[in-house]
Amino acid sequence: MEIGKRIRIERIMSRDSGNTVIVPLDHGVSMGPIEGIVDLRKTINEVAEGGANAVVVHKGIVAEGHRGYGKDVGLILHLSASTMLSPDPDEKVLVATVEEAIKLGADAVSVHINIGSNTEAEQLMKLGRISRDCREWGVPLLAMMYPRGNGINQFDEKTVSLAVRVGAELGADIIKTNFTGSVESFRKVVEGSPVPVVVAGGPKMNSTEEILKMIDMAMDAGARGVAIGRNVFQAENPRRMTEAISIIVHENMGWREAIKHLQG
Questions:
Q1: Is 126 designated active site?
Q2: Is 59:110 a contact under the CB 8 Å cutoff?
Q3: Mean pLDDT over all residues of the chain?
Q4: Angle at which helices 238-251 and 40-49 pack, to 10 degrees?
């Protein structure tokens, strides 16, 4: 790996554990100013103090999120977007470039790709272009790879494995995807990828125990961390929730120990 990319990877993944806790905060484009990201500076403070390795934001929010004090947190600039009002929310368009990310001080970039969507072909072309630019500039690429489209099961082992492998084949350095529901099935997803896989949180879950159990299973299956947004920034205490997740991801603790930390 080129030295520039290696240096940047170490800003978003722990050197000690080799894993990462990423908190996506890019939901303002797709969903508007929902609970937890209205005051983005406050939320970034909380997840950074809780031990997050990186946050994901859009280019217009970088200055709002810059702290300049306290614990450092990596910056991943999200390059793609769609809104919930779009005729096809699964269609993702590019709204920023790798060069912009470098100018804004980003440590990495991310793109969202929906495999099986009506615009899969265009999205794959964009992924290939971004991958080329990332290789040129030594910038790590986080690809958010989801199987989405008519009649597609987003959590099926085979469809998730396909989406993940596509991201790896086209040059992603880290891949975020859905958990498939069990350690055994997700292990097959991870084994099919030559690059690190991190698990997504998805919609807000019913309980803290549910999300922590899911993370525990994903790590047992070989995941290298998480990229979880709403289940962190909409938690009752985002800092404590980030700490609990970090216990599982970085300290190899189970979900029960994480629950005890939240209750302590």
A1: no
A2: no
A3: 96
A4: 40
pTM over 0.90: yes
Which class does domain 3-263 fall in?
alpha beta
**pLDDT tens-digit profile of 223-241?**
999 999 999 999 999 999 9
Catalytic residue among 26, 107, 173, 216: 26
Token pair recorded at residue 151: 């009649």
Looking at the predicted structure, is the pLDDT value of residue 1 above 70? no
**Closest Cα to residue 238, out of 62, 27, 41?**
41
pLDDT of residue 204: 82
Binding-site residues from annotation:
26-30, 146-148, 201-202, 229-230
Tell me whether residue 203 is exposed, middle or buried, using C-beta atoms within 10 angstroms of its C-beta: 0 to 12, 13 to 18, 19 or more: exposed
**For residue 194, which amino acid is it?**
P
Residue 176 designated active-site: yes
Over residues 167-176, the pLDDT tens digits come to 999 999 999 9
**Known catalytic residue at 69:** no
Among the options 146, 173, 213, 216, which is catalytic?
A: 146
For 160, the token pair is 């998730």
